[in-house]
Amino acid sequence: MTRERLDQIEEIYDAALKLGDGERKTFILNKCGDDDELRNEVESLLAFGQSDIKFLDESPDAVAADMFAVSKSDAVLEGRKIGRYSVKSLLGRGGMGEVYLAEDSRLNRRIAIKLLPHELTGNVDRLNRFEREAQAVSALNHPNILTIHEFPTEGEEHFIVMEFVDGETLGDRMQQGRMSFKEILDVAVQVSSALSAAHEAGIIHRDVKPDNIMIREDGIVKVLDFGLAKLTEKGRDIHITGSSAETRPMVVTNPGSIMGTTNYMSPEQARGRQVDARSDIFSFGVVLYEMLAGRPPFTGESPVEVMGSIIKDDPEDLTEIDPRINPALVRIVRTCLEKKPERRFYSAHDLGFALESVTVSSTNTNSSFPPMPTPARPQLITRERLGWLLATLFAIVAIGGIAYAWKLRTSQAPQRAFRQLNFRREAIFQASFAPDGQTVVYSGATDGNTPEIFTVRADSPVPQSVGSKGMHLLDVSSKGELAVLTDAKYLRHRTFVGTLAQMPLIGGAPRSLLEGVKFASWSPDGSQLAVIREVEGKDRLEYPAGKVLREVGGNMSDCRVSPDGKRIAFFEHPIKNDDGGSVNVIDLDGNSTVLSDNFWSERGLGWSPDSKEVIFSASLNSGNFMIFAVALDGTRRIADQSPGGLILQAVAPDGRWLVNRLDYRYAAMVHSPGSPEDRDLSWLRGSKARIMSQDGQTLFFLEDGAGKNSVTCMRKVDGSPLVRLGEGAPLDLAPGGRSVLSLQPGKPGQLVILPTGVGAPTPLDRGPIVSYVTGQWFRDGNRILFSGNEADKGIRFYVQDINGGPPQAVSPEGARDGKLSPDGKQLLARGGDGKYNLYPIDGGDPKPVWWLTGNDVVVQWSGDGKSWYVYQGSEIPCRVERVNTETGKRETFRSVAPAYRTGILSVRPSFFTDDEGSYSYTTYQQVSTLFVTE
Predict the structure, then answer these.
(1) Is residue 357 exposed (0-12), middle (13-18) or buried (19+ Cβ within 10 Å)?
(2) Among 399-403, 677-681, 826-830, which stretch is predicted with the lowest mean pLDDT?
(3) Is 62-361 in CATH node 1.10.510.10?
(4) Distance CA 96, CA 206 (A)
């Protein structure tokens, strides 16, 4: 496109922009006449709603000059020293700067140095924000994200020192020829994993494209340049290209070509609107389409045409380009490229799950995309050649027969296809098939943990509400009757407690049956209910209601009556409030049998239609949930092992499953005075707030999602990059904030003092202690109070001097949940009977605290020692009360919850500063996707 043509477009565009909608169309028609191409260019540009879009003079000389003006004309760093780095050679040059290979003299390793253009680093605030975001990404320590080491400067020059990747870009790889299915899927899964980790940390890439994806020689994929696209932003403007410093392109490609970034924009980017993580998903979809098709989905002769295509056009169907492409993969690409963000995958985690499912189920992942063959000249077949061909054919048939027989012998279960039923962000707790086999009834929550019952069908995915808020579904009978809980209160995991009631699916008021129920299941004929409820601190399984078949001191959950009505399957959890344990069956005479045991977590079960197997979902060792099937003789098999993990909800009479996949996340939150919203300072998806500095500026939290062991983390409330202090769980911050008391993992565990600055960890003398539970500092900074136990003794509290000496017991055995008073003289803790007492640290009889109940959770003492901060239950927001230590008078202190509450099931306050201005808390969020198998 010539400069004259671009000037013509811009002139008409500027004039049309000043007119009303009614006049604008007539004006454009008059100015453009029969030139449909010109009219389309102007109308596409007006659709973007941007008054300051710039154009590129696409002559080769202009583009080439713009490329080499990126930093300094003919800038060469070879041979220079930048700090401890010796620059060796130029690796590449683009709109984001020049990249050099260098040597790190201190660590004797190769690294890469990027020299940022001056026009990108002139705004100090913007540069600082970019550095914080880039450091946050690097702190993820993700195998598919390029590691950034530091940001040195020399004079006015700014550099990024980063990991050196010995390999090629995805763009270079695609230039070499079509990629195999296996190679494409491998790259796609790794990129989605990187995006998922970044998105969970609140970081958006904004420039996902082949040139920002590196493939190492060993096949490891690295995603580059997180945050650099944000560095180029000026408000909400979109700068397609330009030749001046103010309109520097995000990426400039070869002379004469359209910018690469333009081709990978999302529709919302092209329109100049605010973007979120779903914009990255669209760009990823463009990349995936290009890998599969061998060409980009959106093209044009100018950036405006490309952007217009992105906004308006649907790309050519991949099955028409190559019918061998797996249909599941085609659906994934189609979902990524939806024009409306809400119709794409909700998260990169969802996208990764879908891709991994294709990797597992696809039967042709090793096939490639060869070019179309050219006609070959026919050859005559000689007698010798015919004999050789027949022998080869017989060998292939024999090998194929052996392989097929082996496949039949080793296959365990048929592949299942999954159809998604819900398309909004919500937590789903329980779901079941209605008698028609097509309608699904489920209870879920879109705001907090108050459940509501809905119906949905595969052919009508808009949920329809049934009943009123506060109702939780337990089961649906063969007659269409619902077993529900009214006034349901969330307890933990997927467990509620409330009044058992019966109501028809077609509508009507619920009829109350029994109080204090947690789970229920209809008999096959719909005449009776098996229930699990708590009575006097113990869980009872009753069938029918009132007839006790089993009673345990721990928990039971998920009862289901078998289709033949002879047995009830259920989970038994020996530890109170835990969801690990065994899957059991019990007959109508109360004879219980353990079918399978030692599960880390169990959620959701059902029966096979012939009553010969119990099908259930469980996790063996804190990993993904798998679906198992166990026969009545205890023979267990894996019925489904999906990469994202599935939780069984129900089994239909025809054998179809109803399952859901949940994305869960613990978030470490802080509230600061004057801040409009509470801040999420989490690292990965297992961040649990513990303590804050007294100035309210630093949070210390536990990260459970960083690997095998938990990690003690420190982060400023302004969102600065986190600091990993060491493995273990932070227990308390020392006065002055110079060190953290941490419980490090091991058998047995170890109390360690971790410095928050320079210094080495200091383990404490354990003496006779064999296990630790909690720990707190005395305000003198010389002693700690901890709970633990000695061999063959119960848990109790001890005081220990950090300068040496064994721990000294200060409470009787059985004491737990203790909080030390600010003056260090008293310990508030539960006794062996679960009731609160005050224990004098220096010895003496405990004093009962009658005004604290067994339902109270004590967060801590107030700074003046005159009150306790307590809360009860799992209501959202969490209501924290201030309880006077002398009189027991209660008053509401804080309502604690984040502004965004979709999927938030629990809020747990963890710390209040002495001035009561700042506090921290942990949220548990669970968002579910419901599927039915086909």
Answers:
(1) middle
(2) 399-403
(3) yes
(4) 14
